[in-house]
Specification:
Layout: H1 2-8, E1 13-25, E2 28-33, E3 46-51, E4 60-64, E5 74-79, H2 86-92, E6 99-106, E7 117-122, H3 127-139, E8 147-152, H4 161-167, E9 173-178, H5 181-195, E10 200-205, H6 207-219, E11 227-231
Parallel strand pairs: 7-8, 7-10, 8-9, 10-11
Antiparallel strand pairs: 1-2, 1-6, 2-5, 3-4, 3-6
The structure holds flavin-adenine dinucleotide.
């Protein structure tokens, strides 16, 4: 049932009014849009965003809804390198009050059970976990099982660090920042040796990273059904 609901919502399309954009780091920007009262999502889901202020060739991209629903704003955080695609160039043109359209929210990448969970982010793959952890922070005392975030970025450009550190003050939530695969694998092993298949594993980031970590987990005895992947196509 929830699979159908998480998929069919793709047919819900609405226009969002642009509020502002700010830089998170050298090549990462956050875009904020007004949240109408009739739109909500599960922390970790994404929307399909469509450029409508001018005609471009490929006007649609999926982006994680990086705010928790309780934050009352639609937020997307995007990596924009030098020589951006036409889509990203059009995003940078947005001025207050201009519109973009969004279909969704969609996807099954969200916490369903109150069981130990390991969240593994590679680079920009931190966006769904910002939303998930913000939502957990809001829910406060109802979290009793350990939630551990492993955030890997080889350039040590850790987005949302202040917010994540503040959330990690919760006794059940912890965050480890890593800049190497070896370090990441060591942390994964610590977690699997404690919880093995009595937990869920969430991985988000570029395809090569997500697939290699999923294989590593499976080689260490984690069942496929306990691994959830959010593959950010478009990044290597
Ligand atoms: C569920 C989901 C959530 C995402 N969330 C974020 C986010 O929060 N922040 C963020 O910055 N990005 C996110 N992305 C990635 C984003 O949608 C874009 O793909 C990415 O930003 C690259 O866009 P671009 O316009 O720079 O490059 P593009 O011009 O789209 O393409 C870059 C390269 O990727 C290839 N490519 C593009 N799409 C696909 C595909 N579907 N399958 C295979 N190859 C493909 C293209 O052929 C090209 O070679 C998400 C993707 C998914 C699927």
């Amino acid at each position: 049932m929830s699979f159908l609901k998480d998929t069919l919502s793709i047919f819900k399309k609405r226009e969002l009014s642009f509020l502002e954009c700010h830089k998170e780091s050298e090549n990462v920007y956050t875009f904020l849009f007004e949240k109408d009262s009739d739109i909500t999502w599960k922390a970790g889901q994404h929307g399909l965003f469509n450029i409508i202020h001018r005609k471009i060739k490929n006007p649609t991209r999926p982006f994680t809804l990086a705010a928790a629903p309780s934050e009352n704003i639609v937020r997307i955080t995007i990596k924009i390198d030098e020589n951006p695609s036409e889509f990203k160039y059009a995003m940078l043109e947005l001025k207050q009050g201009m519109k973009i359209s969004m279909s969704g929210p969609v996807g099954g990448f969200y916490l369903k059970e109150n069981i130990p969970s390991l969240l593994i982010a590679g680079g920009i793959g931190i966006t769904p976990f910002r939303s998930i952890l913000k939502q957990l922070e809001e829910e406060g005392d109802s979290i009793r099982k350990p939630i551990h975030l492993l955030y890997m970025d080889s350039k040590k450009s850790f987005l949302f660090k202040e917010e994540l550190d503040a959330i990690a003050n919760h006794p059940s939530i912890s965050v480890t920042y890593l800049d190497s695969r070896d370090g990441l694998y060591q942390e994964i092993e610590k977690f699997t040796s404690l919880y093995n298949n009595n937990s869920k594993y969430f991985i988000a980031g570029p395809i090569s990273m997500v697939n290699s970590i999923a294989s590593y987990l499976q080689n260490n005895g984690v069942l496929k059904r306990n691994i959830k992947k959010d593959v950010f196509y478009g990044y290597k």
